[in-house]
Amino acid sequence: MTVLLDVWQVPTSRIPGALWRMARDPFALRNVPGLAFHKSLGTGAGRQFTAADADLRQWALLTVWTGDPLPLRPTTRRWERLTPIHTRLELSTIASHGQWSGHSPFIADPGLRTWPGPVAAITRARVKTRQWRQFQQAVPPVAGILDEQPGLLYRIGIGEAPIGLQGTFSVWSDPAAIKKFAYAVPEHRAVIEQTHASGWYAEELFARFAVIDVIGNPLW
User: CATH number for the domain including 85?
Assistant: First the structure.
């Protein structure tokens, strides 16, 4: 199973075209052979997880393939008409826990348990409406120190809507770097404990991936 994250950066003049693609791509990708799961994603700073964080010049498409991803080509061609600045990350799942829109889209490859190279992580959640204020108050301390972590190569906020359906995508130099952040940084550990105690999420997912290849414009 192949996981692709395509990231496009568009000039300001092409933002309306990018918004149109975000509206149209989910319909165009229905019933594509070999495509098991897909999400069109806005991106942002990932600091407050509100509309104010959004970067209207950067957009992403996550796809999960059981077969050849060649049928994605018509969609990427449409994006190419908007911008030449495109990066594709080819990923393979190391581990995944939880659900995304009622699905468990990522199937782990047991052969990657000892993967030594760069690791990507997706965390996403559907925040309960009544818990939104408390969630927002807890996020900034972690977001503020994330960029300072040894081994962090790249990170963005990802979202399906301005609020409530939020997450992060990050790339780390190796498994040890992400493990240290997840379990040894006090601010992050405190948020994990608060998550369990408060029940912020109606749905959540955490997945780690081996970064198999990075094609196109460098992100780090």
Answer: 3.30.70.100
Give the closest residue to 126 by CA, choosing from 90, 99, 165.
Answer: 165
What Å distances lie between residue 123 and 5, 78, 92, 194, CA to CA?
14, 28, 16, 16
Q: How far is CA 214 from CA 9, 161, 171, 205, 220, in A?
A: 16, 27, 11, 23, 11
DSSP 66: S
List pLDDT tens digits, range 1-42: 899 999 999 999 999 999 999 999 999 999 899 999 999 999
Spatial neighbors of 155 by CB under 8 A, at least 6 apart, are 46, 146, 147, 168, 169, 170, 171
Structural domain harbouring 33: 2-216
Q: Which residues pair with 170 in a beta bridge?
A: 121, 155
- Global pTM reads 0.86
**For residues 105 and 39, is the Cβ–Cβ distance under 8 A?**
no
Q: Over the stretch 158-168, which tens digit does the pLDDT of each residue have?
A: 887 544 457 88
**206: buried, middle or exposed (CB in 10 Å: 19+, 13-18, 0-12)?**
middle
Beta bridge pairs of residue 94: none
Residue 105, C-beta contacts closer than 8 angstroms, at least 6 positions apart? 36, 37, 64, 96
CB 67 within 8 A of CB 34: yes
Total count of domains within the chain: 1
